[in-house]
Design the sequence.
DNA sequence: ATACTTGCAAACGGTTTGCAATTTA
DNA sequence: TAAATTGCAAACCGTTTGCAAGTAT
């Protein structure tokens, strides 16, 4: 999906989350720990509903209610562990922010795939524009819509071996 | 607010809209005409609710229901007359697409102001990234969040030098 | 004890839609 | 007169929230 590689992090997501919660007078409960672990178990993009499903499929009985998931997502975002990247179908989509390099996305309108990319010139451009407008940037979201290489490929000769 | 200037257009928005509606087997009703006119009476960004308000304030009795406004917004978007640019407060924000040059936005998180800007290097960058990924771009949305010059300005007196 | 947290169900809010009445070609 | 359109109110749907019961310090 992407060749972006995680950068080395000194502290685990759980620890980082506990740290943040402490500063807010909150606690790292077992529910919150279950959520952080599940969230950082894979690098895929996800929305609230997908996360709830993953948590409900657990066999260890560590289910967490939908409300708690929503509350935790907000906290994970505030703590800098997650960031919201897009809203393709009116659902907020999240990805890892902590321990993962900053990047943007090509979004295929056909298959919905998110392709990550980085390009330094974007940051140069943003700095320049910010300076020109006396604007202090805190974040940005660049969504590039179109058709991915796979979907551009002519379908005439589709591999029928994919069918089972 | 912005020094982007409208480009010359051969056909009026109403005509363009009628043209599009025809191709869909639809009609340019008085309600739809009222809406297009109101929408293109000013270049400001707006959301559905603001448009409804503007239409309700009319003294000529040309009121249009909320549903019709929502339906027309979708049609105006499909026809290429409008485009959705941001979603600051969970409300879709629209702007003129037809007869207005392509640009992006700085979005002030404090006052909600949208500042338009253009920078050619963005397009160069997008072309490069698209080529690298075999991606065919159809559109993009760049939202830059932060604090505008106005909101950065201190409300109270701020000392420029550290006087001890 | 006090403060934080959870799960449930109800509320929220922007947007969409079913439908009967109305308008248009 | 058949097809499109409107306005109303209800539905929709992801998300948020009030609250009572539970848990940690």
Sequence:
């Amino acid at each position: 999906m992407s060749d972006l590689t995680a950068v080395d992090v000194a502290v685990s997501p759980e620890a980082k989350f506990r740290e943040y919660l402490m500063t807010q007078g909150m606690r790292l409960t077992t529910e919150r720990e279950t959520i952080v672990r599940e969230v950082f178990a894979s690098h895929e993009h996800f929305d609230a509903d997908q996360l709830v499903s993953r948590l409900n499929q657990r066999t260890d009985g560590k289910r967490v209610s939908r409300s708690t998931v929503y509350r935790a997502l907000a906290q994970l975002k505030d703590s800098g562990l997650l960031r919201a990247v897009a809203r393709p179908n009116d659902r907020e989509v999240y990805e890892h922010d902590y321990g993962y390099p900053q990047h943007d996305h090509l979004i295929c309108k056909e298959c919905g795939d998110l392709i990550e990319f980085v390009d330094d010139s974007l940051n140069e451009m943003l700095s320049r524009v910010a300076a020109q407008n006396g604007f202090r940037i805190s974040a940005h979201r660049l969504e590039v819509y179109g058709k991915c290489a796979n979907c551009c490929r002519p379908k005439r000769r589709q591999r029928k071996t994919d069918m089972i």
